[in-house]
Design goal:
The complex is a heterodimer.
Chain A lengths: L1 H36 L2 E2 L9 E2 L3 H8 L1 H33 L5 H13 L2 H12 L4 H9 L13 H28 L4 H9 L4 H12 L1 H16 L3 H6 L11 H10 L4 H29 L1
Antiparallel strand pairs in A: 1-2
Chain B lengths: L1 H30 L23 H9 L1 H33 L5 H13 L6 H10 L10 H21 L3 H9 L4 H12 L1 H17 L2 H6 L8 H11 L5 H21 L1 H9 L6
Chain lengths: 293, 277
């Protein structure tokens, strides 16, 4: 019996090991390393020579005006894009769920932006919103709403708005698919009972659909919040943080500090702060999720 | 009444379709226009019929680098998703079925790493890549992509294995089968569709990955498509939008193909974690 369990242990280990090794070296080690790096003065030039400076990096990050701007930008991005994606995705899902034909075709098309890469989608948005681009032409020369070409990408609000618009455009499809699946779990009898009671569409939606898919909504909030904090490629491609780092998000600012000015210690502390903020947010959201379900 | 409501829904959905597809249609229409130096005036959504040209595509395809970038992307994505499928399904199976030491901690780590944005780890990962001497190599991408997708893939596989009845395993054990028999003969064939869906997601992740590839790869010949596109974009003082969008459209073709062929796996892969049955 002993040999049997020992050999089973070995078999389990043999199945676990390949994954554990890759996960350990390329994910767990970097997490620990990030934590260590954040306490050292450490830069790109002297990668292997560092001196311990305690919490100085954290102090520098938190006192930094540009970090604060990038943090506010990230929060704004998340607060705007998360609810917009959920509301629009849910609306599309409900509409698709209520039509008799072409459900699959609509689902197929609405999901297309999700599979379009961030790099490509960002460039297309940059092209459309450029000062000499298509949108300004419509606003100025065709609709005559604007007097001059609007410099969308040259201001903090403008640049961020374009990135947020892209985020929403790209995210609706994912929400639509997730909510469509959730809607299939709502028992039809509930709606029928409500119809007998004379409930109108909106009442049914509010009193039956929403409570029933609450768990899925919270799941989406958690995933999209992580995604909001992860915004990087779109900002980098569309504004590059310009003008003067006004449109940077925490990650593009972190990347700039690491790879353009070479301040690894600073960037490590910044990364760690972001990871911590997200972990705390996620724990709170999971707690709410658990309590409600 | 019902008909009226349906027509209204179709109209709203069609309007949404226009907004959804507009940017991509504009991209393709621009790639079919003659390559003006900067912005055309007046900008037009569609080129006139006589204007339509494949000049931009010809340029990209003749330049030769495209094939190398394409093959680089294909190589990196294929190898990464294959390794990820193998290790993540074994991890997911073990975590679901056995109560080994450290199981809780391992699963906890997996959840935590799903929460941390991948880009926050770019710095220590870069330091690791330097130490391992994989900067500017395709092998500097693959293990990192695998590690990147392991948490979500393992999480999904574990969920699927959780739903498989234990009776099948027990029957094998009574017949004197080992853990290997259960895994390879029973579980793997049953979770094939789940493995397919995580593989498709992982493929798209690797295919479009930008921040890490942009950090590690410098050499023109080692570039994957996303950084080839962004490099093209930054290369000239005046962006050659026709070329950029022709290259973009070409790089989207495999994605669209995968998407259409494996449609059903997309839905099952996406929704498994989100809906409590």
């Amino acid at each position: 019996m002993l040999t049997r369990t020992t050999s089973n242990k070995l078999r389990i280990l043999s199945l676990l090991l390949p994954g554990l090794i890759i996960f350990g070296i390329f994910t767990i080690y970097p997490i620990l390393k990030l934590f260590i790096m954040s306490f050292f003065e450490w830069d790109l030039g002297s990668m292997f020579e560092q001196s311990f400076i305690g919490l100085d990096n954290y102090k520098n990050v938190l006192m930094d005006e540009t970090f604060r701007i990038s943090f506010v930008n990230t929060i704004v991005y998340t607060l705007v894009t998360v609810p917009s994606q959920i509301i629009l995705g849910l609306l599309v899902a409900v509409y698709i769920n209520n039509i008799p034909r072409l459900k699959i075709s609509f689902r197929l098309i609405y999901y297309l932006p999700v599979i379009t890469s961030w790099v490509i989608a960002s460039l297309v948005f940059k092209y459309i919103f450029n000062t000499e681009g298509l949108l300004n032409y419509f606003l100025k020369d065709i609709l005559s709403i604007a007097e001059n070409n609007i410099r969308w990408l040259d201001s903090r609000i403008g640049g961020l708005s374009v990135a947020m618009l892209l985020g929403i455009w790209k995210g609706i499809g994912w929400n639509m698919v997730v909510f469509l699946a959730a809607l299939q779990t709502v028992p039809k009898e509930l709606y029928e009972a409500a119809e007998i009671d004379g409930a109108v569409s909106f009442t049914k939606f509010k009193n039956i659909t929403i409570p029933y898919i609450k768990g899925t909504i919270l799941f989406a909030v958690v995933m999209l919040t992580i995604g909001g904090f992860n915004v990087f490629t779109s900002i980098k491609m569309i504004t590059g943080g310009q003008p003067a780092h006004q449109t940077d998000t925490v990650l593009t600012w972190m990347y700039y500090k690491a790879f353009s000015t070479g301040e690894f210690g600073y960037s490590a502390a910044l990364s760690f702060i972001i990871a911590l903020v997200l972990a705390i947010l996620a724990i709170i959201q999971f707690k709410v999720l658990k309590r409600d379900s | 009444m019902r008909l009226k409501k349906h027509i209204l829904l179709y109209i709203i959905l069609l309007l949404g379709v226009i907004v959804t597809t507009l940017p991509m249609i504009y991209m393709i229409s621009t790639s079919l226009k003659p390559n003006g130096a900067l912005y055309e005036f007046p900008p037009r959504f569609f080129p006139s019929i006589s204007e339509i040209t494949l000049e931009n595509y010809r340029y990209i395809l003749n330049e030769g680098k495209f094939y190398i970038n394409f093959l680089n992307s294909m190589f990196v994505s294929t190898i990464s998703v294959t390794i990820a499928a193998i290790v993540a399904s074994a991890l997911g199976f073990c975590i679901s079925r056995f109560r080994f030491k450290g199981r809780k901690q391992l699963f906890g780590f997996i959840i935590v790493t799903m929460i941390i944005p991948g880009t926050t780890l770019i710095l220590p990962q870069y330091e690791l890549a330097v130490k391992l001497n994989v900067i500017n190599k395709l092998s500097g991408l693959i293990p990192f992509y695998v590690a990147w997708v392991i948490p979500y893939s393992t999480f999904m596989i574990k969920g699927f294995v959780d739903n498989l009845p234990h009776e099948l395993d027990e029957a094998v054990y009574i017949d004197g089968g080992s853990i290997y028999t259960v895994y390879f003969r029973i579980v793997l064939p049953l979770i094939k569709p789940s493995i397919a869906s995580i593989t498709i997601f992982n493929f798209l992740t690797a295919w479009e990955e930008y921040p890490w590839a942009n950090t590690v790869i410098n050499d023109n010949m080692k570039r994957t498509l996303p950084i080839a596109i962004s490099g093209f974009f930054g290369q000239h003082q005046f962006t050659q939008w026709g070329y950029v969008f022709a290259l973009s459209a070409l790089s989207l073709i495999p994605v669209i193909l995968v998407y259409i062929v494996f449609q059903k796996y997309f839905v099952s892969g996406l929704t498994a974690g989100s809906v409590k049955g």
